[in-house]
């Protein structure tokens, strides 16, 4: 091997070393998600943060989760032979109702083990996203806000508009109560509470309250959520 060949080989090895292990970090930077492994199981960690962005793009100053990114990610996770489970981390103020429900329906429809963990907040349309997983957790310091449907922009003051609001609220309530231990009437009561928020209608539940109300399965943080996900994978593998 001459000097020129040795130089080319050295450059190739340096390039390989510099890029080794960078793919997960690149994915994390671009999408806020990453694939992790404990040496036995491989799971996908998906973060839903900021505001759920729907059909209209928000300003670059907002932290957003874009549903056109999350939807194909979920399909890929479900169909990947290498990924055994999904961990969803939530810290969201809510956002577009239809986009949030679309993501929640996909999570709820997955065959693979799924666990959600609410950190900081899981407000508004973040509530269906939190309960969509097969097992849900909430940190003791986290909160969840339940309130009626809100609309921005021009709204016509006609009976049809209010009928539409009611039907959309029922869609959300039905999904939440179908995927949690909270009953429909109680969910509606909390959404319509008038003495909880200073300038709004609705309720804020702290972590322990969310569990006591049956909205979330368990109180816990990352350790408990990961343990539950790995246990669920083990039980799935044994059947």
Helices and strands in order, then pairings?
Elements: H1 3-19, H2 23-31, E1 33-37, E2 42-53, E3 64-66, H3 67-79, E4 85-95, H4 97-108, E5 114-122, H5 126-131, E6 135-138, E7 143-146, H6 159-178, H7 184-191, E8 203-206, H8 207-212, E9 218-219, H9 222-238
Parallel strand pairs: 2-3, 2-4, 4-5, 5-6, 6-9
Antiparallel strand pairs: 1-2, 7-8
Helix pairs in contact: 3-4
Gyration radius (Cα, Å) is 21 Å
Sketch the topology as an H/E string, one letter per element. Answer: HHEEEHEHEHEEHHEHEH
Basic shape: globular
**Number of helical stretches of at least 4 residues:** 9
The biggest beta sheet reads: 7 strands, mixed
CATH-assigned fold name of one domain: 2-enoyl-CoA Hydratase, Chain A, domain 1
Mean pLDDT, to the nearest integer, reads: 87
The share of residues in extended strands comes to 15-25%
Q: What is the terminal separation in angstroms?
A: 56 Å
Share of helix, binned: 40-55%
SS-based structural class?
A: alpha/beta
CATH architecture of one domain: Alpha-Beta Complex
CATH-defined superfamily of one domain: 2-enoyl-CoA Hydratase, Chain A, domain 1
The unreliable regions are 13-22
Say how many strands there are: 9
CATH class of one domain: Alpha Beta
